[in-house]
Structures are given as C-alpha cells and as structure tokens.
C-alpha cells in the first residue's frame, strides 16, 4: 500500500439550484470568502490558480490547480493538482429534487515532505482532517448561497 496516496469522495446536498451551485464552484477566487480552510487563492492566469489550504491540523498545503475541464452542461469542473499534492480533483454538480448534489472526487499523492514522513502514523488523522474540511466547506457554501 502506498501510504501517501489518497482517494476522497464527498457529497454535498445543497438547496440552491444546480446552475447557482456550479456558478459558485467555478469561481475559486471566491472560495476563501465561504470556505474557512481555503486560506487564499491567487489566479496565475485564466485557468490556473495557487491555493493555500489549512484545515485543522497545523500545516499548510500549497497547491497549483490547473483547469482541465469546464463543462457547465455536464456540471463538471476538473483540475490537475501539483505542489504539496499531485493528482486531480473534480466537482460534478447535478440537480437533486429541488436542490443540488455536488460531488467532489479527489485522487492525490502527497508530496509535502513532512506529510510523507508522517504517512503511516498520520494517515487516519489526515483523512479526518480532510473530512472536517469538506464538512466546513459544505456548510460555508450553503450559507453563502443563501445570502446571495
């Protein structure tokens, strides 16, 4: 088993329409305003941004995200990730009754030296850290969408 390889899946049930949710998710520069663990996003060009993320454990992750797919008709936003994590992440936004289901898939290999050194003993903590971050993101996006 490669202890530095992670596969995550998060499902966010939201009351806003799918188009509104997609619109919020396609503007990563706004993420810090509603997602507390996304500390900063700096656009490098039209399809690339530099993210600084810090969840509950005391370390920052710096990741460059490059858009590889933007398909509003299919509700898909996909990025290639490099930096402290290498891999990909994808949002898939679909109508769900009167609301929306936002599915987040992420497959990454951790390259940050500290996290690689702590890979075996830290793995359960890293997974919980991710889960808590995603829960906070769903709550933050729901509140943000209610306010707009």
Shape, principal axes of CA atoms? globular
- Order of strands, main sheet, comes to 1-7-6-5-4-3-2
Supply the CATH class.
Answer: Alpha Beta
Sheet with most strands: 7 strands, antiparallel
List the helices and strands and how they pair.
Layout: E1 5-14, H1 18-25, H2 31-34, E2 38-43, E3 48-53, E4 61-71, E5 76-83, E6 85-96, E7 99-110, H3 113-117, H4 119-147
Describe this structure in words.
By secondary structure, the protein is of the alpha+beta class. The protein has a single domain (5-147), classed as Alpha-D-Glucose-1,6-Bisphosphate, Chain A, domain 4, CATH 3.30.530. 31% of the residues lie in helices and 44% in strands. It contains 4 helices and 7 strands, in the order βααββββββαα. It has helices spanning 18-25, 31-34, 113-117, 119-147, and strands spanning 5-14, 38-43, 48-53, 61-71, 76-83, 85-96, 99-110. It has a 7-stranded antiparallel sheet. The longest helix has 29 residues, at 119-147. The mean pLDDT is 97.
């Amino acid at each position: 088993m490669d202890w530095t390889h992670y596969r995550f899946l998060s499902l966010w049930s939201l009351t806003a329409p799918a188009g509104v949710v997609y619109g919020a998710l396609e503007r990563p520069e706004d993420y810090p305003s509603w997602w507390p663990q996304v500390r900063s996003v700096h656009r490098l060009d039209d399809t690339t941004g530099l993210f600084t993320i810090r969840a509950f454990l005391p370390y920052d992750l710096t990741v460059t995200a490059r858009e590889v797919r933007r398909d509003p008709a299919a509700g898909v936003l996909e990025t290639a990730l490099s930096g402290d994590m290498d891999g990909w992440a994808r949002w898939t936004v679909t109508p769900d009754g009167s609301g929306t289901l936002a599915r987040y898939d992420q497959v990454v290999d951790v390259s940050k030296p500290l996290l690689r050194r702590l890979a075996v003993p830290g793995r359960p903590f890293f997974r919980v850290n991710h889960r808590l971050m995603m829960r906070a993101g769903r709550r933050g996006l729901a509140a943000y969408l209610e306010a707009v």
